[in-house]
Amino acid sequence: MAKRVPVKTALVGLLVAPAAMAQQDTAQTPASPSADPSQTQPANPSAAPATMQTVTVTGSRPSEDFQVTKGSINRLGAANLMDVPQSVVVINRALMQSQGVTRLEDAVRNAPGVTIGSAEGGNIGTNININGFSARTDIYLDGMRDRGQYYRDVFALEQVEVLMGPSSMLFGRGSTGGIINQVTKKPFLKQATELSAQATTNGLVRTTADVNTPFQENNAARVSAMFQVGKASTVDQTNVLDFGLAPTVKLGIGTPTEITLGAILQHRKDQVNYGVPNLNGFPLNAPRNTAYGFNDDYTEQDVIALQSLVEHKISPNMNIRNQTEFVWVNTAVRETSGGFVGTLGNGNRFVAASNLTGNTPYSGQPLGNLWIRQLSRDRNINDITVENQTEVLSKFETGPVGHTLLMGIDLNYESYTNQQMSRTGTCFGNALPSGSVGCTPAGYTVGANTPGNVATVLGNYASSSAWGAGFYANDTIQLLPELKVVAGLRWDYYAAQIANSVNRNNTAGSTTVAGLQQTDTFLSVRGGIIYEPTPAQSYYVSYSTSFNPSLEQLTSTTGTQNLPPENNKGVEAGVKYELFGSNLSLNGAVFSIIKNNARTANPDGTFSPTGNVQVSGARAGFAGRITPEWQVFGGYAYLNGVIIQGLNYQNGQGNTTGKVPLNTPRDTANLWTTYTFKETYEIGGGFFYVGQRYANNTNTVVVPAYTRVDLTAAYKQPAYDVRLNVYNLFNTVYYDGVIASDGGRAVVGSGLTGMITLNYRL
């Protein structure tokens, strides 16, 4: 095992050393302007930065700062991230454009401790793990739950915020490891247009448009659009055809009452990479471009997301806001994955690898002798979310003590249907288990359509719905000029019901339930102490809780009883610094998250609330400018995850107690840096490192560690810029995502790829 750098030593050096510098920086000029285009003013094109904290903007070019000092989540009770007693990583549009990011998964790679995973039942949509825990239903859109199973593009986003740790007091159920909040682009009072065109060496062509138009005195409209077509990766069968439109109008900008109406409309028809199965405890070592689906496989998605926000300032110290969201997602899937590795026995019958001898790919059984049994992943899903939140924020004093009190009501309705389907074929005329489409050589892409004699058969139809209500209050109490206390409570009511068409009569021996109802209530808490001896220093400790009902994802096709909610507790202690005139932000924290009542699978397919999972660790991050020309963004996370109490079969097979939770690497790190010469030429690059992780909770399938190196170069002018991005410079073979199904699969990442981007501003 490779020797690791001592985490405590690294953190002490990062967190303690800047304290003296922070003391000196407090008297300097405040931070550079916000990245929000509405706050950006034209500058003299020939002017140079006069001081370190000033960023010169030529023409109408938006701010290019990677640093963000303010969050958008109203419920945090503090706009300044220095006043938030939790780790928050903000990936803004400047960083995403520098890296050429187009997908939400690629954006959140910039938050250490975040990994790419998969939902139960297959790789549908954006599925992310935070601090070792699934965040499938912990993705938000402007602070509202965005739980649909779809692939998320960033064309309509201004930034992405990753809030670490349990946060049910702020968001209701979920958020064991943290939440991801997508912040959409908002209209502002300035005419601006930006057009973009991109092309990659894989054959992907993408265009975007972002047009902002003010009208009358205090109103503005903004429209973002996206279209892309071509091959998304060096892996075969990854073609996409996508387009999206995001219109938004904002009325009464700068007046006591502001109204924002917005929508995101998307259509996608993609081929999805379902990864490779495992062999001998590792992902199958097939050529990196190999795909085991058929040419006519597809994942087709339609998304309609509608939002309204009304904000009214009652007085200088009190305002009220009401936000409503409607999201509908339809996902139609006919996909084929490589499920199991084997070989052909007598009569060309498929024999699973577990029955082989000497089955190492390049010894007893060379890759050319191995075959893959293909599985159908077909379904049609409809997701609907309706949510309304009303919040009142007031600032007042009780004697010498100041208060920032937030009170709110959250009402929501969700529904979900899933029509499962399957295709069953043969392997050289030999019967295969239900849902197995065929067999194909392990070292080659199929390169054909689904056999014409393979019919689609309807399977289980699952339907579910849920009602929820939350009542919460959070107070930020200013005890002394340098001392604050944060305290919050939230009470949630969550009632869900599910039904399955299979086994309607609850036949003895079947683990599929015909129907199930559940009602849960839960009280979540949040508390923290913040000590700020100067405006450039913040030291904090915090405690927070969250809960996960057993029907949280509105899915259950196995014997799930009325289990109590999983309850999660998190503690965190950290520091935040601002250096160089507040142009460089540093942060670090140590934390521990424990999940109690974790659902563990029994041998008969049912579940019991007997599990306990703990992830403890540390993280550090940085963002901003070291000099006016040199920007940096990055961080490191150390995760020590363990299943304290898990599954223990009597025969010793499938034990999980004492194992590491799947998709929880011990070390993750990232760095992105750019340097600009004469405000015209930019060069930069960075890396993403993900340590070794497991593809299942029994730790029998190991996904190797990897380091991916990317580069960028740009030529900038007031009206346009041209950027080159190079991804995976050394053509490293690495596994991007982890899928727990079929014993543990892994999705191979794209090889060496180049992308050219032209941005034009009017």
Automatic annotation (TrEMBL):
Matches recorded under Pfam families: Plug, TonB_dep_Rec_b-barrel
Family of the protein in this entry: Belongs to the TonB-dependent receptor family.
Localisation per UniProt entry: Cell outer membrane
PROSITE patterns per record: TONB_DEPENDENT_REC_3
Compositionally biased tracts (Polar residues): 23-44
Keyword Kinase applies: no
Protein name, as recorded: TonB-dependent siderophore receptor
Cleavable signal peptide: 1-22
Gene3D superfamilies associated with the record: TonB-dependent receptor, beta-barrel domain, TonB-dependent receptor, plug domain
Domain TonB-dependent receptor plug, chain residue ranges per copy: 81-179
UniProt keyword annotation of Signal present: yes
Region described as Disordered: spans on this chain: 23-53
Domain TonB-dependent receptor-like beta-barrel: 281-729
Membrane topology label: Multi-pass membrane protein
Main location: membrane
Keywords attached to this entry: Cell outer membrane, Membrane, Receptor, Signal, TonB box, Transmembrane, Transmembrane beta strand, Transport
